[in-house]
Amino acid sequence: MSGPREDQRALLLRVARRAMRDYGLEPDFPPATQAEADAMTAAALDGDGLVDLRGLLWCSIDNDDSLDLDQLTAVRTEEGGGQDGAVTVLVAVADVTALVTPGSPIDRHAETNTTSVYTPARIFSMLPERLSTGLTSLNPGEDRPAVIAEMTVDEDGATTREHVYRALVRNHAKLAYRAIGAWLEGSGEAPDGVDAVRGLAAALRLQDEVAQRLRRRRHEQGALELETIEPRARLDGGAVQALVAERQDRAKQLIEDLMIAANGVNARFLEARRLPVMRRVVRSPERWQRIVDLAAGYGAALPGEPDSAALNAFLVERRTADPTRFPDLSLAIIKLLGRGEYAVSLPGQETEGHFGLAVREYAHSTAPNRRFPDIITQRLVKAALASSAAPYSHERLFELADHCTTQEDNAQKVERRVRKSAAACYLADRLGEEFEGVVTGASAKGTWARTFDPPVEGRVVQGEDALDVGDKVRVRLIEADPERGFIDFACLRQS
Fold this sequence. Notes:
The strands form 6 sheets. Strands 1-8-7-4-3 form a 5-stranded mixed beta sheet. Strands 14-15-16-18-17 form a 5-stranded mixed beta barrel. A two-stranded parallel ribbon has the order 2-9. The radius of gyration is 23 Å and the shape is globular. It is α+β, with helices and mostly antiparallel strands. Helix content is 36%, strand content 23%. The longest helix is centred in the C-terminal third of the chain and has 34 residues, at 394-427. It starts with 7 loop residues before the first helix and ends with a strand. The protein contains 13 helices and 18 strands. The model has no long low-confidence stretch (mean pLDDT 89). Helix 1 (8-22) packs antiparallel against helix 13, helix 2 packs across helix 3 and helix 7 (200-220) packs across helix 8.
């Protein structure tokens, strides 16, 4: 059982800090890191010699409470009315490396953690907040240097022209996913931030159109149609009052599709200039046969060898047939696909791609306030723009790729650990209740199931024999321990 509900925020913070240390992450900034950040000023953000794009209708779309704004999007509307229907879309990425220099205290801490860690009690930022939510954030009304990925997209979703360069930008509207998503889907009015900027509504709808073109083309090439539910603990004061299931919406799709495209532009830019690329890859799934068996349970036949196009056709059919349970099927498929990882490709070398996205040229580059691989890519891009040598040796890049993969896994373990503690707080007084769910993990290490309502994951410690990923089950809650993050179920029935 948990302590008094008003103490749950403090409990979750304690759990988060302990988990950070257990998994080799620093929960606090070292004194030298914080001192360096405190001494920084906006004067270091030099915009001289940069292309001036402040007049474009740049905007940010992120979570309601996000303060570390990594990217802006815009379109050149004057180029959107051509006979071929081509539209030029631009993604501006915060020039974090203008302030974060290699080997500096801030850089060393960022390299140690490699990512921001998001927990209900606190966000453990990769960079000090003076940077991530201030000097290197693309905040509204502020002139900021940025690295631009510009691309022209035709009606079929093909990119016909790409350009990477540095520019000065200005965020004209800070927008949020939920409100923009509802507006784009026709279930809500345009937010005030849209109406306040003349021409922004039309520009956003054009961005959405381009994003949908890009999405359609990726799916035609085998990108997977997946939808997951991300439960988010809602704290009121010190207590966990609810677990909110956050679903994909049209605004999140817009940003996702434009960022995937921008990441491809940057990877191809480096490749064309004979520089190494730290790619984000998801290899062909090792548990493909289990995916085949899972699809067979729905009456679908998949080929014996991994085939993303065939898998996506199955997923599209299941989304149409059972949209309510589709996120749970998606989660099972994601577990079976295996983890993503960072891998370095050298000039002229054959590369692996991202199985789930059906793209080969893909490098994380659009979130340098939150991810260290994006800082690495930004340094490589700026070296290419300056016709300079790569800022890292090949050996060092391989080391960093392995380290970033490990630390990203560790950060996800921390986030899962705290999410489970938050869920245990919420469920602590519901022992003995029964829930419908789906098996999300099954290995020698244990079996896990996720309940549909509330959306929580726990270990199946009774009746778990013969269960496998994707099986639907009915479970009884037999333990909820917030301090240890334990949620234990007994399986009553497999359906």
